[in-house]
Amino acid sequence: MTRVGVNGYGTIGKRVADAVAAQPDMELVGVTKTSPDYGAEAALRRGYDLYAALDDRVAAFEDAGLDLAGTLADLLDAVDVIVDCAPSGVGERNRPTYEAHDTPAIYQGGEDAAIADASFNARASAPIRNADSLRVVSCNTTALSRLLAPLDESYGVEKARVTLVRRGGDPSETNRGPINDVVPDPATVPSHHGPDVNTILGDVDVDTAALKAPVTGMHTHSVNVTLEAKPTTEEVRELLRGETRIFLIPEDAGIDGAGTLKDYASDLGRARGDLWENCVWEESIRVQGRDLYLFQNVHQEADVVPENVDAVRALAGDVSREESVARTNETLGVGI
Amino acid sequence: MTRVGVNGYGTIGKRVADAVAAQPDMELVGVTKTSPDYGAEAALRRGYDLYAALDDRVAAFEDAGLDLAGTLADLLDAVDVIVDCAPSGVGERNRPTYEAHDTPAIYQGGEDAAIADASFNARASAPIRNADSLRVVSCNTTALSRLLAPLDESYGVEKARVTLVRRGGDPSETNRGPINDVVPDPATVPSHHGPDVNTILGDVDVDTAALKAPVTGMHTHSVNVTLEAKPTTEEVRELLRGETRIFLIPEDAGIDGAGTLKDYASDLGRARGDLWENCVWEESIRVQGRDLYLFQNVHQEADVVPENVDAVRALAGDVSREESVARTNETLGVGI
Amino acid sequence: MTRVGVNGYGTIGKRVADAVAAQPDMELVGVTKTSPDYGAEAALRRGYDLYAALDDRVAAFEDAGLDLAGTLADLLDAVDVIVDCAPSGVGERNRPTYEAHDTPAIYQGGEDAAIADASFNARASAPIRNADSLRVVSCNTTALSRLLAPLDESYGVEKARVTLVRRGGDPSETNRGPINDVVPDPATVPSHHGPDVNTILGDVDVDTAALKAPVTGMHTHSVNVTLEAKPTTEEVRELLRGETRIFLIPEDAGIDGAGTLKDYASDLGRARGDLWENCVWEESIRVQGRDLYLFQNVHQEADVVPENVDAVRALAGDVSREESVARTNETLGVGI
Amino acid sequence: MTRVGVNGYGTIGKRVADAVAAQPDMELVGVTKTSPDYGAEAALRRGYDLYAALDDRVAAFEDAGLDLAGTLADLLDAVDVIVDCAPSGVGERNRPTYEAHDTPAIYQGGEDAAIADASFNARASAPIRNADSLRVVSCNTTALSRLLAPLDESYGVEKARVTLVRRGGDPSETNRGPINDVVPDPATVPSHHGPDVNTILGDVDVDTAALKAPVTGMHTHSVNVTLEAKPTTEEVRELLRGETRIFLIPEDAGIDGAGTLKDYASDLGRARGDLWENCVWEESIRVQGRDLYLFQNVHQEADVVPENVDAVRALAGDVSREESVARTNETLGVGI
Ligand SMILES: NC(=O)c1ccc[n+]([C@@H]2O[C@H](COP(=O)([O-])OP(=O)(O)OC[C@H]3O[C@@H](n4cnc5c(N)ncnc54)[C@H](O)[C@@H]3O)[C@@H](O)[C@H]2O)c1
Ligand SMILES: NC(=O)c1ccc[n+]([C@@H]2O[C@H](COP(=O)([O-])OP(=O)(O)OC[C@H]3O[C@@H](n4cnc5c(N)ncnc54)[C@H](O)[C@@H]3O)[C@@H](O)[C@H]2O)c1
Ligand SMILES: NC(=O)c1ccc[n+]([C@@H]2O[C@H](COP(=O)([O-])OP(=O)(O)OC[C@H]3O[C@@H](n4cnc5c(N)ncnc54)[C@H](O)[C@@H]3O)[C@@H](O)[C@H]2O)c1
Ligand SMILES: NC(=O)c1ccc[n+]([C@@H]2O[C@H](COP(=O)([O-])OP(=O)(O)OC[C@H]3O[C@@H](n4cnc5c(N)ncnc54)[C@H](O)[C@@H]3O)[C@@H](O)[C@H]2O)c1
Fold first, then answer.
1. In which residue ranges of chain D is pLDDT below 50?
2. Is A179 close to B180, i.e. CB distance below 8 A?
3. Mutational pocket test of ligand 1: of A34, A37, A68, A85, the residue with most ligand atoms within 8 Å of the beta carbon
4. What is the DSSP string of A210-273?
5. Measured from the CA of A10, which atom of ligand 1 is nearest?
6. Same domain, yes or no: D325 and D277
7. Which residue out of C267, C281, C300, C301 would a mutagenesis test of the D interface target, given it has the greatest number of D Cβ atoms within 10 Å?
8. How far is CA A18 from the centre of its chain?
9. What integer pLDDT is reported at residue A86 of this predicted model?
10. Which value, to the nearest 10 degrees, does the dihedral of the CA atoms of residues A58, A63, A67, A73 take?
11. Distance from CA of D101 to the nearest CA of A (A)
């Protein structure tokens, strides 16, 4: 039984907590919050123990009538692994605390790769040995790694070129723009996302160009991969269909974008309408010569969640990568 | 045990089906679809029997490999009540079929009031006697009725004036606008929503003005009610807090709009992030003299769902209105 | 000839500069910029003298190859009136500088009313006597004042209730949200906009409720006014038609929102597609009993511009208010 | 003096009319409208003669008090060239009428290539000889042709791969979506835009993938071109800077998207904020090996306008292509 804590109960943290709580070989010891907002109240309703992320906020929880089980220090002492889900860059500030408590830590993709012993993706990263910390790469990098790994294994990737049309903010972030604009972000090409893929797939040549659009639901990737071999369109579709964390959106299903994708996820009974899989439009997959094209949608709030579960096992569990992925998929229901 | 069918498994239909299936005194016999899209496939995965809404579409389901339990005619013969959830105006075209099968029917708010023996809202409409058909009023009318009924009972409503900032389309409707515009719709004031409230609350004087905005999540109502009495702000808050289908959003909860509201609903474990309640910002409630102001958000996809369940009981059940509401709330988890 | 400077050449400043430059009785001495961006370059192309708003930015302009005519201090010494168009709150910080140079100043609506000797609206505010500074009220307050003044004069305003659906950001502000949300802002009702109207129309009872929507084009006001008299709908239409800074959008013109309004403004040959007038949908105007309803759209970037020109004359000119308004309208082409 | 008529005075038609009216060697005889909306009224205010596009609408204009100079048949008899700017596909229905009147015609990009003797782009298409009709290619194809032609001439294009993030609708089209979604459209890759480029540049290998986003301002292209030669980044920037219908957005200008681009166009004094040029972010241009990357924005309402003017001269004028482009640029002010 691996005891797990989640530090930072926001968009990613709440999902990681739910996923950990669903694992038979893990125990969710508790989650931290910085302030007693609706998320904190709901965590308690869900039965999760609540810890103050910052010592000076304890009184605020008391004032709001929310019971605390302790502070971050208490949580760190009680767990085998802490999953840091604080905002981008805050993980770096939290690291000394984790180290002072000797608590193995998992960080998210908003942190620099140097924060951890290794960057992690269950499908694509190298075996983990003797690591005390891992970084689960970002939503975009996770999705690109899952896609490029099988392509590289089967056909060799000569060069990948991807345009990332990113969501401007998550549904709960009303202070994020743009409104009525698509913004090159960064305006320089290639963007940093390609090098980030190389923290997982060291040798794959991938250039990315990133835009920001006025949507909250999902990222959209327009992908081109020049392969070394010349598979048929049908062979690539078959290959991707075989990946458990890739969902091939069937033609004629009436799924045309993020709205219908999430509607379908909810139809399947998934909490939060979460899509943990890369969502690839089957009809968009096309090979011409050695050039492969496709569109995939990425649920930025969800795709890293099963990866975090597998990262916990990579750090503190005793099962193989394959076994971990199978368990995670089974318990969460990953794979459509 | 009331046997129920749902004709039209779209945004409203799929939610009504789930809600009916959750009632111990009801049996969901099946749902109809016009085409074998993702919704049909998911209905089958959920274990719902699928019927073809239109006879000439049977072959399309076969081609798609989706098993049909029959056609609409078969469903009508097997149920005590049919809930029509077809697109606005199509219910009118379906009515003769229901009548030919002698099947009591519930229609949605997209239909004219004249379609049914009575318009229905569990909180506010008059007792139903000897009705063979009911119309559950629209999402906006449902929300206004729930709000105005207790105000009128407690303080008397001299006049209500409401600006409805309506969502442009549901999340799954990518062909709906506007983009980057707020459109008076209709441009004439008052809009038809006020008279529709009068199908439920015959005597309440209410004027509405309607706009359409580029959002998919919820409607927002800016409400003014001139009361006959002069309650305090705190009394009105207390009154509304006592209503089970009104959720008073606490101050300082960090809930600022539709995004955080749905996030909270999901945090509470609700399927589809559904908010069946009127969501009223507590801090927005203010009485000045006899003038009450407040903002409420309405989840257009969800608020009519418990009303449909209660309408089924009003038509074919044998329990009181209060008992029905209590059961529906209990089984679905209505009330925050 | 009144010599005028504009401090802060952003959304409002660039429009005020153009409007001043178009007045036969005014000379635009120059405009200031804080950085050598596209606006600075375009100001020079337009033939406007450029001054550094901040002394420590002079080198940045030189590096960018943009010629400066001096700094703010030089501009203040060369003008009869400075129009402050710096961001909200920065005017307050600039005030001591203007006073040190003894330069009469006009501030914008983002500043507190206390910043100036009087708040100003050409149609509605009291006569200005012996003022050394004026504050042109905000876009929303300007529009409400223009509307309520004639109504109050002709029929008496018992109470006005207005829902303001505000644009989230200007078209050039890509860091502003919300995306896909309508946000009560502030969540308390009434908002501060009503009291701001009272800096112009001291005695009018007006309550406002404010929302923020994912649009950049215009604000939309849903207006209710309980009048003391009972004019007919046609009389109110006639009254508003007579106001030069109110545009009655004709029925059947095909104008349905901000997009078509701006398209029409451009069709009329207006620079920047600017709409200086309140845009009131004629068909939305309706009187029921003593209750008047209407929708108006407000071009936030433009409606205060003619008011600034009139404010310059109120501070430093020698013509009557009526004469000023007539000149401004004539030179700019205000009035559709 | 070439006499020109414009059939269909909408988004494109009104701009073509203005551009034609600005040419010293052309006379705008008149424009047609199907209904007496704001555009018709504004055309008259601008001094353009108005013709009824459809005979049965004559009475509607009379009822609205708008003077007609005649019907389409009259206009066709009075001009040397008719520019068809009717909605996509309607040009095909209008063709027999033009032919019956023996009036040379220019069609827009919404029509099939087969409609005209040749497809046209002033920079890139082959010389026109003995044509009686031309098709000015679509906004996206125009922009791609302008970009690829110089690249192919200077370095050879081995293969171009472009993701088109298209605006959902024009600012005046409130019935167009999507809201809060980015939609693959078409979901198959490559899209038809590549083959359309080949109607101009027959031999260039170009694959396109198209998305639709909730914006109204501009299209955004994420471009990759594998070149045959290996120019430096600086050489490509220099090459594109030399193209009169390409605007290289300077670094550090503070221009980050469509909003600021249009603001800049208005700052330059351009009517409607129109950007006739491809707008390429200078800092986005990067060559790695033989791979060129860049982002360009395309003002869908404007870029085809100078091309239409040149198309008129190609059909009915007596000057060279170069001379025509120079005149058009000079009179309109194309080139930043
Ligand atoms: N949201 C996404 O789309 C997404 C996707 C993949 C990865 N990530 C990464 O995940 C991490 C978390 O992002 P998020 O979107 O969940 O952010 P979030 O803002 O939704 O949640 C962060 C939570 O951390 C809390 N917090 C703030 N300071 C803290 C501190 N000092 N200690 C502990 N908790 C603190 C906040 O109150 C908040 O609840 C970031 O590194 C981000 O880059 C985010
Ligand atoms: N979506 C909302 O916000 C909302 C809210 C309250 C009430 N309503 C009302 O509910 C009703 C349904 O609306 P919706 O939003 O669920 O629509 P929808 O388009 O999401 O779903 C309608 C379903 O009916 C099916 N259908 C089409 N023709 C049919 C036929 N002849 N017979 C049976 N089914 C048919 C469609 O395929 C679709 O699955 C309408 O009256 C609407 O006005 C909708
Ligand atoms: N944009 C609107 O919708 C609107 C409408 C009415 C009134 N206003 C008010 O007008 C004022 C200006 O708003 P805006 O929208 O034009 O802002 P803006 O940000 O577009 O422009 C402000 C300009 O001032 C410059 N600036 C910054 N610091 C300065 C300083 N210290 N001195 C001089 N200039 C400085 C900025 O660089 C910028 O160019 C605010 O008070 C605002 O509340 C704005
Ligand atoms: N809007 C763009 O982004 C864009 C860009 C490049 C090319 N185009 C192409 O230009 C053409 C016009 O598009 P638009 O956007 O200007 O359309 P629009 O709808 O804005 O304008 C079309 C005009 O034609 C009128 N019309 C309708 N039927 C007519 C008929 N039978 N005869 C004459 N006029 C008629 C309409 O009333 C309208 O005023 C289309 O082929 C389109 O594909 C459009």
1. none
2. yes
3. A85
4. EEEES-SS-EEEEEEEEESS---HHHHHHHHHT-TTEEEEPTTS---SHHHHHHHHHHTT-GGG
5. 21
6. no
7. C267
8. 14
9. 98
10. 0
11. 44
Q: Give this complex's ipTM.
A: 0.97
CATH number for the domain that contains residue B175: 3.30.360.10
Q: Is the dihedral of CA B87, B89, B90, B95 positive or negative?
A: positive
CB-CB neighbors (< 8 A) of D263 in chain C: 38-39, 171-172
Q: Is residue B125 over pLDDT 90?
A: yes
pLDDT for res B317: 87
Task: Locate the DSSP E strands across chain C.
Answer: 2-7, 26-33, 50-52, 70-71, 81-84, 105-107, 118-120, 133-136, 157-167, 183-184, 206-213, 219-227, 246-249, 278-281, 286-288, 291-298
Could you tell me how many CB contacts below 8 A there are between chain B and chain C?
143
Cβ neighbourhood burial of D252 (10 Å; 0-12, 13-18, 19+): middle
DSSP code, position A13:
H
Identify all chain A residues contacting C181, using CB atoms and an 8 Å cutoff.
Answer: 171, 174
Q: In this structure, which residue's CA is closest to atom 21 in ligand 2?
A: B10
Q: Do C319 and C224 fall within a single domain?
A: no
pLDDT bucket at A317, cuts 50 / 70 / 90? confident
Mean pLDDT (chain C, rounded): 98
Query: Can you state the angle between helices D139-155 and D304-316, rounded to 10 degrees?
Result: 80
Distant-in-sequence, close-in-space partners of D110: CB < 8 Å, separation ≥ 6: D87, D88, D89, D91, D138
pLDDT tens digits for C181-236? 999 999 999 999 999 999 999 999 999 999 999 999 999 999 999 999 999 999 99
CATH code (residue D107): 3.40.50.720
Residue type, B66: L
pLDDT tens per residue, range A205-237: 999 999 999 999 999 999 999 999 999 999 999
List active site positions of A: 139
- Pairwise CB contact (< 8 Å): B216 & D176: no
Residues C37 and C105 placed together within one structural domain of the fold: yes
DSSP codes of every residue in A316-328 = H--S-HHHHHHHH
Per-residue pLDDT, B152: 98
Tokens linked to D221: 């292209």
> Are residues C247 and C314 located together in one domain of the fold?
no
> Which residues constitute the domain of residue A55?
2-136+304-332
Site to substitute for ligand 1 among A11, A88, A167, A174, most atoms within 8 A of C-beta:
A11
Q: Which ligand is nearest to the CA of B110?
A: 2
What's the pLDDT at D317? 87
Residues in D closer than 8 angstroms to C174, CB to CB, are 256-257, 259-260
Report chain A residues whose CB lies below 8 A from the CB of D184.
Answer: 220, 256-257, 281, 284, 295
Is A76 a pocket residue for ligand 1 (Cβ < 6 Å)?
no
User: Residues A192, A55: one domain?
Assistant: no
Q: Which of C139, C204, C265, C314 is catalytic?
A: C139
For chain B, the chains sharing at least 3 beta-carbon pairs closer than 8 angstroms are A, C, D
- Any CB–CB contact under 8 A between A163 and chain D? yes
What does the DSSP assignment read for A57-119? GHHHHHHTTPPP-EEHHHHHHH-SEEEE--STTHHHHHHHHHHHTT--EEE-TTS-GGGSSEE
- A335 touching C (Cβ < 8 Å): no
- Nearest CA, atom 37, ligand 1: A34
Which of D292, D275, D330, D237 lies closest to D143 in space, CA to CA?
D275
Residue C139 is a catalytic residue? yes
Residues A23, A159 within the same domain: no
CA C297 – CA B187 distance, rounded (Å): 12
Q: How far is CA D285 from the centre of its chain?
A: 24
Q: Summarize chain C as % helix, strand, coil (round to 5).
A: 35, 25, 40
Residues A127 and A86 in one domain: yes
